[in-house]
Design brief:
The chain folds into three domains: 170 residues, NAD(P)-binding Rossmann-like Domain (Rossmann fold); 157 residues, Dihydrodipicolinate Reductase, domain 2 (2-Layer Sandwich); 82 residues, ACT domain (Alpha-Beta Plaits). Helix content is 35%, strand content 26%. The chain is built from 14 helices and 17 strands. The strands form two sheets. Strands 7, 8, 9, 10, 11, 12, 13, 14, 15, 16 and 17 form an eleven-stranded mixed β-sheet that branches. The mean pLDDT is 96. The structure holds NADPH dihydro-nicotinamide-adenine-dinucleotide phosphate (NDP) and L-homoserine. NADPH dihydro-nicotinamide-adenine-dinucleotide phosphate binds next to helix 1.
Length: 435
């Protein structure tokens, strides 16, 4: 059987998990790929550190060039993360005719257009299944399984750390900082956990999913992003009273006006399957014109779950080692000269329903003032809760609006917040029916 030598850049959570699964399942992987896949070299910053994997038979180095310049290595796994030196190392490996597998969504989102072009120029593959939703084979599903469809929209819980935090806070009442620490210990979080908490990691993934869905170049800087750090237990409780769950959702939708890409906390009806995706699990709903709604579910982070995706890419590459890259599945699922620039909508032009929580003075006539301003801006109320003051005279009014263009809602809130009876800035969270 043909031996394919693999070199690793990075031997942490994902790198270590990949070595473990490659060793444990070597026979199954050979039967699937037609090759004996052997890890010969791995690079890390500190090669004396204890690893989660057995490194017997693997030459360890602190110099990434020892891996990418090794003429026997045919596939390089970039599992170190970050922009540099990862980008330069990938470009160098590609230029030497090596195939590259990466889990680095930050790099693909920000530099994927350049990196995919470099892979094509060098007639090799740059694969990235592990970059989105951990162990869920969502890239394969979108590039191949859904290729008959015009994709209308997709929505996903695509950060495992964030979903883990929200779930533990809701179910156990745990403190945000404690759960984040646990997620870090479990190997779920990014090197900078702000990426998870502030939605940047989800925005990286959403940008790639949107390009896969609509056949457009990557446009990371156009993704609207809000994090989860502003979600309060009060809003989680009120949302549940109204029959909703709050999830950190990435949404990409194509309409005649253009494409919207946004990551933000979102109320989802509790009866939707995706509203019940908890812990580190991720899920992506993709709506195609032919197939209808499809749902992809699985672990969004973690050593072996992510390794599952890394190794699926290795198997694909092994099966196609002698196939010219223009005959393999295109990086973004569309032939590269068929990618199209599409207008990208600013968030002010996006239409969604809203959850509003207003802190109001508990006195007659307050509701009339609020509803008048909403009506003047063409906004109607779909549901309402009123919570009497526990202390003092400030009551909570919770409203669900109809679908409204965001700039219309902002104008209405400006008017509402200027009323004497409104005590604090309104809390607003977007609502998606996902139908
Ligand atoms: P870790 O921090 O666990 O591992 C990173 C590895 O890269 C470590 O072995 C580190 O060395 C090595 N490394 C980092 N910088 C350098 C450098 N300059 N030179 C040499 N070695 C270097 O990260 P993860 O495994 O969690 O993540 C890796 C990538 O996978 C990231 O892009 C991440 O976004 C992505 N990813 C992570 C998932 C997860 O669940 N953790 C899931 C999906 C994607 P040392 O060990 O000595 O510090
Ligand atoms: N930090 C990421 C997450 C890793 O929690 O989803 C998987 O991409």
């Amino acid at each position: 059987m043909k031996v394919v030598k693999v070199g690793l850049l990075g031997l942490g959570t994902v790198g270590g998990g990949t070595v473990n699964v490659l060793k444990r399942n070597s026979i199954e992987i050979s039967r699937r790929s037609g090759c004996e896949v052997v890890v010969t070299k791995a690079c890390a910053r500190n090669i004396t550190r204890e690893r989660i994997c057995d490194t017997d038979g693997i030459q360890l180095t602190t110099n990434p060039n020892d891996v990418i310049n090794d003429p026997d290595i045919q596939i390089v796994l970039e599992l170190m993360g970050g922009d540099e030196p990862a980008k330069s190392l990938i470009l160098s490996a590609l230029s030497q005719g090596k195939h590259v597998v990466t889990a680095n969504k930050a790099l693909i989102a920000s530099h994927g257009n350049e990196l995919f072009a470099a892979a094509a120029d060098n007639n090799v593959t740059l694969a990235y299944e592990a970059a989105i939703a951990g162990g869920i084979p969502i890239v394969k599903a979108m590039r191949e399984g859904l290729s008959a469809n015009k994709i209308e929209w997709l929505a996903g819980i695509i950060n495992g750390t964030g979903n883990f935090i929200l779930t533990e806070m809701r179910d156990k009442g745990s403190a945000f900082a404690d759960v984040l620490k646990e997620a870090q210990e479990l190997g779920y979080a990014e090197a900078d956990p702000e990426y998870d908490v502030e939605g940047i990691d989800a925005a990286h993934k959403l940008c790639i999913l949107a390009s896969l869905a609509f056949g457009m170049p990557l446009n990371f800087e156009k993704v609207y992003t809000e994090g989860i750090s502003t979600i309060t237990p009060l809003d989680v409780t009120y949302a549940e009273e109204l029959g909703y769950r709050i999830k950190h959702l990435g949404v990409a939708r194509k309409s005649d006006a253009g494409v919207e890409m946004r990551v933000h906390p979102t109320l989802i009806p509790e009866k939707r399957l995706i509203a019940n995706v908890d812990g580190v699990m991720n899920a992506v709903v993709v709506k195609g014109d032919a197939v209808g709604s499809t749902l992809y579910y699985g672990p969004g982070a973690g050593a072996e779950a992510t390794a599952s995706s890394v190794i699926a890419d290795i198997v694909d590459i092994c099966r196609q080692l002698d196939v010219p890259s223009d005959k393999t599945v295109p990086s973004l699922g569309f032939i590269s000269d068929q990618l199209q620039e599409i207008a990208l909508l600013p968030i002010e032009d996006v239409t969604t329903a809203f959850y509003l929580r207003l802190s109001v003075e508990d006195k007659p006539g307050v509701m009339a003032g609020i509803t008048t301003i909403l009506a003047e801006n063409g906004i109607s109320i779909e549901a309402m809760l009123q919570k009497e003051p526990k202390h003092g005279t400030t009551a909570q009014v919770i409203l669900l609006t109809n679908s409204v263009v965001e700039k219309g809602l902002i104008a209405a809130l400006k008017g509402i917040e200027s009323l004497d009876s409104i005590k604090e800035p309104a809390i607003r969270i977007r609502v998606e029916s996902l139908q």
